[in-house]
Amino acid sequence: MFPNASIGILILALFVTTESADWGYENEKGPDHWADLFPEACAGAKQSPININTEDTVYNPALKDFSVFFDPPLPGSKFYVHNNGHTIQVNTEGKFFVSNGGLTDIYSTAQFHFHWGHKAHHGSEHTLDGAPSPIELHIVNWNSQLYNSIGEAAVEPNGLAVLGMLFEISEEDNPVLEPLVNVLMHVRDPDMKIKAEIPAVSMRAFLPRAADRYYRYNGSLTTPGCFESVVWTVFHEKLTISRRQLHVFRQVLKPSGHHVHKRSTRKHSRSRAVREVFEEIGIEDDKREQARFRRQIVKNTETHVHESLPEDATSHEETMEHHESNHTGSHGHEVKPHTGHHGHNVKPSPISAHPGAHESNMTHAEQVRMMLVNNYRPVQPLNGRVVYRSFPFFNEPINIDTEVVYIDKDNSELARGAATSLVSSAYMCIAIIVAAVLC
Ligand SMILES: [Zn+2]
């Protein structure tokens, strides 16, 4: 709690300011410098994300399954997709709530967003036993039982409850992601402030089937201002995403312009460098994805990169076009690599905006890499925090009388597992009553 209102306003102002301000994921504005740029918050002792060492987690039988409602969403509910320059974010409009799951209050779902990397083996913020996933989904919920707005809740203990889902790559597209993936290219330029509406679905659709198996710890926002207000849930079971869908995400975020001033010291052939990039993003065996990727680079650099790409990648473009046109029916509509038909041209890339000496200094691999931006924060130290687990390991003895603390209230109050479970049940009853009234 704040000692007085002025400090509360000050911190809220910081929260609002840092929403759009001077930070990023690269170089001097990147995560390594957040603690210096935002020393009040990002240098705290309970920061997120973390590596979850599963052997060190503590089983807490009070951590039950979540209640996610409304399911299906109430009529008039909407999802709006936009690119805020740091991530793809989907804002909810309508009544979406999460409760139980060891949460002592009812939380309103405000938005969900993603963190990803451009290489095949990193991208998620949380890691399990040291292993990253290629992409992570965060569903951000705020404590609407105790607070009046997400801005107010975001700076209070237990003010936010974020659900984190890790992904693994699958052969098949994830149909739940498809409506979002289909509009990603339309919101590619954050400066255009485009919001694309997609059908609202229950948040349950984004949770793994085993939604009662998760890890729980107290942490922070993973972006500035890094407020330590988050009850974190990271699910044990991973969701799936196809390489094609992941690749669409990887094309969305544009890097900052100063990257063009970097000069490569590496001395290898262009075609080999491009192949390395294909390997980095996991499409080295997929000619169709390579051709699509190359075409996107050409589109956004307004140069003729394809002239230096490996012949085999270039020669498959027509095949890919034909395949795409035959493919349209199964996906409703294909994502188009441009937004021209909406009346918005893709903004020229830093390369075309800064022609001349810098361009000639860059290898084509660097030009390709310019299109690839990681938007994840590296794992932060646990600093003595305990990570709880909602499920027992095989053959693990279950002691239901074990007193377990899993929520820090004002850093002091100790909640007994069984008692908290009763409280959660009470809130669930309230939620059901509220739901009935609203229906
Ligand atoms: Zn996030």
From TrEMBL:
Its EC number is 4.2.1.1. It is an enzyme of class 4 (lyase). The keyword Cell inner membrane does not apply. Residues 301-358 are annotated as: Disordered. The lineage of its organism: Eukaryota, Metazoa, Spiralia, Lophotrochozoa, Mollusca. This is carbonic anhydrase. GO terms for molecular function: carbonate dehydratase activity; zinc ion binding. Residues 1-20 form the signal peptide. Belongs to the alpha-carbonic anhydrase family. It is found in: Secreted. Residues 301-337 have a biased composition (Basic and acidic residues). Keywords: Glycoprotein, Lyase, Metal-binding, Secreted, Signal, Zinc. It comes from the Eukaryota. InterPro entries: CA_dom, CA_dom_sf, Carbonic_anhydrase_a-class. Its main location: secreted. Pfam families: Carb_anhydrase (PF00194). SMART domains: Carb_anhydrase (SM01057). Residues 21-301 form the Alpha-carbonic anhydrase domain. GO terms for cellular component: extracellular region. It comes from Dreissena polymorpha (Zebra mussel). It catalyses: hydrogencarbonate + H(+) = CO2 + H2O.
